[in-house]
C-alpha cells in the first residue's frame, strides 16, 4: 500500500472513531427513515432501508462550494444509526414489521393484500415507525410487468458516472468534495439507458438495476445523480463499508456483485438480462461468471473500456471468448454508441434511438461516428 493511502486510511479511521464517539453520546432518538427502492414479485415485495438519528441532508446545488460538499460528505458518512427500532412497511394492503440491526438497517418482506396493477413498473407504499407516527417515508418497489422484454444490470462508477476508480486519489477527491450535481455521466449514457428502459415498443417497462460497491451512505447522492441526469431510476444494490487498519477500501467487491446479480436473476427466472460494466475493476470477470452460471439468461455484456492498456484488453478478449462459448456476447468499446448499435441490431432498442445517443455524444464533444468496438465476439449471439 502506498504511503498516501496509509495516511488517508489513518485519517478515515480517525474520522470513523470520532463518529463513533459522537454517536455514543447521542440518545439515538430516530429522526428519519431512509427507504431504499426495492423490488419483488406479485407474491412478495422486498423492502430495505435505515433508521437514522441524523436530520435529512439538504439538496445539493451545482454551484455549492467544496467546503459545503465536504460538510455533506462528513454528515453522510457519519450517519448515526438507530439499532433496535421497529418499523412497519405497508404496500398494496399488505403489512410487515422489521427491527433494525446494529447498523440501523432493516429488511422486510411484504405479501400484498390486494392485486397489483400489471401495467406499471413501480408500486408505492410507506415505511413508518409505529411508536412515532410523525416519522414516515414513502417507499417504491419495482415489479417487472409481463410486457417487459428484458432487464438491465449496470455498474455505476466508471460505467455510468465518470469516477476514475483506477486513480484512488481522484476518486476520493470527487467523493469528498463533489456532490450529485457535479458528477458527470459518460457521453450518451442517459440516452442509451432511456432507450433500454423503453425497449423497442417504447413503453418504459424494462427494469434497470444498479449494482455497485459504493457504500449505502451514498444512496441519496447516487439517486439524486440519476434523477438529475434523467437516467432511468432503478433499485440500487450497494454495500456496507468498513475501514480497518490494513484496508482503506472494503474487500469482497466481486463477492458482493455476484451475490446481488444472482439475487436479481433468481427473483425473475424467466426474464433475460443485459449486463453493463467497465474494464477498470472486475466487471468482465464477474459477468463472465454470471453468463456461465446462468446459461441462457444474459443477452449481452457491454463493457466500457476505461483501461486501454494492451494486457487488460488481451485479458478481456480471452474473457469474451469464454462468454461466447457460454452462449452470449461480450463487447468492449470506448464509447456508448457502439453498445447502442449492437442493441438496436438485435431489436432490444428502437433504431430511432441511435440518433439521440449520437447527438448526446456530439453535444459533449465525443466522436459522432466511433470506431469499431475494441472486442466483438459472437456478434450474432444473444437471444432476441
Q: What low-confidence regions span 5 or more consecutive residues with pLDDT below 50?
A: 243-251, 367-372
Strand content: 15-25%
Oligomer state of the chains in this structure: single chain
- Helix percentage range: 25-40%
Number of helices: 10
The CATH architecture of the largest domain: 3-Layer(aba) Sandwich
Structural class: alpha/beta
Write the layout of secondary structure elements.
Layout lengths: L2 H23 L6 E9 L4 E8 L13 H12 L8 E6 L2 E6 L5 E6 L11 E8 L2 E11 L8 E4 L13 H10 L11 H10 L9 E8 L3 H10 L7 E4 L13 H15 L5 E6 L4 H11 L4 E7 L5 H16 L4 E4 L2 H10 L7 H11 L11 E3 L7
Parallel strand pairs: 1-7, 8-9, 8-11, 9-10, 11-12, 12-13
Antiparallel strand pairs: 1-2, 2-5, 3-4, 3-6, 6-7, 13-14
Helix pairs in contact: 4-10, 6-7, 7-8, 9-10
General description of the model:
- This protein has 384 residues and is α/β, with parallel strands linked by helices.
- It is 33% helix and 23% strand.
- It has helices at 3-25, 66-77, 168-177, 189-198, 219-228, 253-267, 283-293, 310-325, 336-345, 353-363; strands at 32-40, 45-52, 86-91, 94-99, 105-110, 122-129, 132-142, 151-154, 208-215, 236-239, 273-278, 298-304, 330-333, 375-377.
- A hairpin with a 2-residue loop joins β3 and β4 (94-99).
- Mean pLDDT is 83; it is low at 243-251 and 367-372.
Amino acid at each position: 500500500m502506498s504511503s498516501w493511502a496509509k495516511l488517508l486510511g489513518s485519517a478515515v479511521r480517525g474520522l470513523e472513531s470520532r463518529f463513533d464517539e459522537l454517536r455514543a453520546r447521542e440518545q439515538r432518538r430516530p429522526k428519519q427513515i431512509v427507504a431504499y427502492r426495492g423490488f419483488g414479485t406479485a407474491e412478495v415485495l422486498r423492502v430495505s432501508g435505515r433508521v437514522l438519528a441524523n436530520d435529512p441532508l439538504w439538496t445539493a446545488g451545482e454551484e455549492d462550494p467544496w467546503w459545503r460538499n465536504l460538510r455533506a460528505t462528513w454528515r453522510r458518512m457519519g450517519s448515526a444509526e438507530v439499532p433496535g427500532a421497529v418499523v412497519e412497511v405497508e404496500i398494496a394492503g399488505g403489512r410487515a414489521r422489521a427491527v433494525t440491526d446494529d447498523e440501523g438497517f432493516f429488511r422486510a418482506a411484504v405479501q400484498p393484500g390486494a392485486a397489483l396493477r400489471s401495467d406499471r413498473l413501480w408500486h408505492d407504499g410507506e415505511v413508518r415507525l409505529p411508536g412515532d407516527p410523525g416519522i414516515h417515508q414513502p417507499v417504491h418497489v419495482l415489479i417487472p410487468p409481463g410486457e417487459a422484454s428484458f432487464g438491465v444490470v449496470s455498474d455505476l462508477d466508471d460505467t455510468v458516472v465518470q469516477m476514475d476508480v483506477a486513480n484512488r486519489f481522484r476518486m476520493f477527491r470527487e467523493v469528498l468534495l463533489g456532490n450529485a450535481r457535479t458528477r458527470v455521466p459518460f457521453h450518451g449514457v442517459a440516452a442509451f439507458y432511456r432507450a433500454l428502459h423503453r425497449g423497442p415498443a417504447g413503453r418504459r417497462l424494462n427494469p434497470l438495476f444498479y449494482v455497485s460497491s459504493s457504500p449505502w451512505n451514498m444512496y441519496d447522492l447516487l439517486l439524486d445523480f440519476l434523477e438529475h441526469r434523467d437516467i432511468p431510476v432503478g433499485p440500487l444494490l450497494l454495500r456496507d463499508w468498513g475501514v480497518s487498519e490494513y484496508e482503506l477500501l472494503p474487500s469482497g467487491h466481486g463477492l458482493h456483485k455476484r451475490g446481488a446479480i444472482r439475487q436479481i436473476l433468481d427473483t425473475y427466472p424467466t426474464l433475460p438480462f443485459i449486463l453493463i460494466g467497465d474494464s477498470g475493476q472486475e466487471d468482465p470477470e464477474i459477468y463472465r461468471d454470471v453468463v456461465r452460471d446462468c446459461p441462457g439468461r444474459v443477452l449481452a455484456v457491454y463493457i466500457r473500456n476505461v483501461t486501454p492498456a494492451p494486457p487488460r484488453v488481451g485479458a478481456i478478449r480471452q474473457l469474451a471468448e469464454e462468454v461466447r462459448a457460454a452462449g452470449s456476447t461480450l463487447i468492449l468499446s470506448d464509447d456508448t454508441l457502439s453498445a447502442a448499435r449492437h442493441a438496436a441490431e438485435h431489436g432490444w432498442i428502437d433504431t430511432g434511438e441511435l440518433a439521440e445517443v449520437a447527438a448526446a455524444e456530439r453535444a459533449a464533444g465525443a466522436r459522432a461516428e466511433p470506431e469499431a468496438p475494441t472486442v466483438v465476439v459472437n456478434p450474432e449471439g444473444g437471444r432476441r
